């Protein structure tokens, strides 16, 4: 059972540098995939988080633009700025993206970084980062404040993603706020829904056509049997 919690928990007391060092050593001792955390001289630290993408609605991306290369990323080339044409498509459900971030990286920056990697040009406010936890047979989702630090939560929980994982979802506030979408976005949504509807109709037609053929074959064989 999936349960979404919106109540914020009380903030724990900030850790001292010595406590952070001890927790990082304990964390790294449990890591099995070489994705270690590293403590810097100024008390900040870096590490990796994995974010599951669980988006139900299509996203808007530049039309006809190739994926961003390492060269583009190093040069900070924004390919989305190279065309005004837009199209919409569904990101793979439950895709996982690994990010290397700092202890000072906020939830807001993680969301913006994910959208940039996938060249999504939608408003970041349409998305929210959740932490996913399992307790008493339930899957609990808690929406994270934009000012929260995901790597700090990862450090406290340890590297086991069954204990804590991060999920990018739509920023649901009840009903869908269609006014937040542009006319081209809404038109793209209609085109996608129309295509999905036609595909679904064809699937149903194929299903019952096969059923009809089997029924005719069964009747034909039954007529040929004595008695």
From TrEMBL:
Which key words tag this protein in UniProt? Apoptosis, Coiled coil, Cytoplasm, Cytoskeleton, Metal-binding, Microtubule, Phosphoprotein, Zinc, Zinc-finger
CDD domains recorded: RA_RASSF5 (cd17220), SARAH_RASSF5 (cd21892)
Q: Which cellular compartments is it found in?
A: Cytoplasm, Cytoskeleton
The answer to keyword tRNA processing applying to this record is no
**Which ranges carry the Ras-associating domain?**
87-173
Q: Which GO terms describe its molecular function?
A: zinc ion binding
InterPro entries attached to this UniProt entry: RA_dom, RASSF1-6, RASSF5_RA, SARAH_dom, Ubiquitin-like_domsf
Where it mainly occurs, coarsely classed, is: cytoplasm
> What superkingdom heads the lineage?
Eukaryota
One GO process term, biological-process aspect: apoptotic process
Regions annotated as coiled coil: 194-221
Pfam families under this entry?
Answer: Nore1-SARAH, RA
SARAH domain residues are: 175-222
Tell me which GO cellular component terms the UniProt record holds: microtubule; nucleus
State the oligomer form and interacting partners. Answer: Interacts directly with activated HRAS; a RASSF5-STK4/MST1 complex probably associates with activated HRAS. Interacts with KRAS. Probably interacts with Ras-like GTPases RRAS, MRAS, RAP1B, RAP2A and RALA. Interacts with RRAS2. Can self-associate. Interacts with RSSF1 isoform A. The RSSF1 isoform A-RSSF5 heterodimer probably mediates the association of RSSF1 with HRAS. Isoform 2 interacts with activated RAP1A and ITGAL/LFA-1. Binds STK4/MST1, inhibiting STK4/MST1 autoactivation.
Query: What name has this protein been given in UniProt?
Result: Ras association domain-containing protein 5
Organism the protein comes from: Sula dactylatra (Masked booby)
